Amino acid sequence: MVNRKVLTLDEFTIFQKRQFASATGELSGLLRDIGLASKRINVEVNKAGLVDILGDHGSTNVQGEEVKKLDIYANDQMIRVLQHGISCAGIGSEEIDDFVIFDDEVSLNSKYVVMFDPLDGSGNIDVNISIGTIFSVFKRITPLGTPVTKADFLQRGDRQVAAGYVIYGSSTMLVYATRRGVNGFTLDPAIGEFCLSHPNIKCPPTGNIYSVNHGNYYQYDKGIQEYINACQQKTKSTGGPYTQRYIGSMVADVHRNLLKGGIFMYPTTRDKPKGKLRLMYECNPFAFIVEMAGGRATDGKKRILEVEPNDLHQRSALFIGSPLMMDELEKYYPLA
Ligand code: AHM
Ligand code: MG
Question: Closest Cα partner for 136 from 154, 149, 124, 121?
Fold first, then answer.
């Protein structure tokens, strides 16, 4: 047992690894690599208002959306640490059309692939609102020593080995989940280390917050509208009225609801009939994290983690949060 009150991320993962004689330490290595990338991203996010790094990069990403410079910086940092590490055989990124094979000898023999959204909510950068990095880890299904293929990436969410996010907020936090639980680490800027601040995070069974883009209200299905109405009324079924909180930065919205109890919804709309959020880079990792903390996540029809992916960039609706609030939603908007 480490005889100190606060464990750093490295100490924590090493401590966990020591409990499994058979563990190779590759997953710990991966988390360390992502922790390093996020510290570098954090430095740039923090000075975004100071340097000439703001603004559009002048290109569009594969979804036809505007790309900011920091997205590209964050993407490069994630790729660099994962490629130089010893645990990752390839990546998929929200910013890149196709997956990337790491074909050096060490990487070819690594057992994990990582999918990430390097900087989610980046539309909020220039107004000083929290943004985040989201990641999802799968064990490759192709043999070690060979280049990864698309099949390694297009795995169902319930095959994730780990998932996490970093929130660049009033403090910077890294939260990651494995099947053993969910833990949160706050960056101590004095020593540049993530320190265990939120051990064994549990999603409260219910809460008082609903998060949805109200501007789209008239585009939602009737059942969703009725649930939102119920959230605003003091009805027998909801016990409301609930508080509405929507930042428009998923990492911040889901993080708050995970800690305080609540429900986050991004339903399909007439404009976005498949939903806005990406299954592989946003919905799957958050569904894994929230389920591991005792919450639930669906696309309105089924568990997110049971959706069979067919495209690296596929969109999905998302409903995620405290289990009793999800039950309540489903009375108005039943699963398929
Ligand atoms: P992004 O990946 O382009 O940053 O978009 C994802 C973000 C989420 O963080 C957030 O929940 C959502 O878009 C907000 O969308 P909207 O402005 O339509 O409510
Ligand atoms: Mg995103």
Answer: 154
Q: Which CATH superfamily is domain 9-198 in?
A: Fructose-1,6-Bisphosphatase, subunit A, domain 1 (3.30.540.10)
The distance in angstroms from the start CA to the end CA of the chain is 48
| pLDDT at residue 65, rounded to an integer | 61
What share of the chain in percent tops pLDDT 70?
A: 92
CB under 5 Å of ion ligand 2: residues: 117, 120
The pLDDT score that the predictor gives to residue 176 is 96
The residue among 232, 264, 231 whose CA lies nearest residue 249 is 264
Mean pLDDT for the stretch of residues 133-141: 98
Residue-wise pLDDT for 71-84, tens only, equals 999 999 999 999 99
Q: Which residues surround ligand 1 with Cβ inside 6 Å?
A: 65, 117, 120-123, 213, 248-250, 253, 276
pLDDT of 46: 86
Specify the amino acid at residue 292.
Answer: M
As a whole number of Å, the CA-based R_g of the chain is: 19
Q: Domain 209-332, what fold?
A: D-Maltodextrin-Binding Protein; domain 2 (3.40.190)
The pLDDT, as a whole number, for residue 123 is 83
When comparing pLDDT for 298 and 60, which is higher? Answer: 298
| CATH 3.40.190.80 segments of the chain | 209-332
Q: Are 186 and 173 in contact (CB under 8 A)?
A: yes
Cα 269 to middle of ligand 1, angstroms: 14
Say which ligand is closest to the CA of 124: 1
As annotated, the residues of the chain forming the CATH 3.30.540.10 domain(s) are: 9-198
* pLDDT value at residue 58: 58
What local confidence, expressed as pLDDT, does residue 44 receive?
A: 87
Query: Looking at ligand 1, which atom is closest to the CA of residue 120?
Result: 4
> Whole-angstrom Cα distance, residue 280 to residue 9?
25
Atom of ligand 1 nearest to the CA of 117: 2
Structure-token pair, residue 93: 């990124």
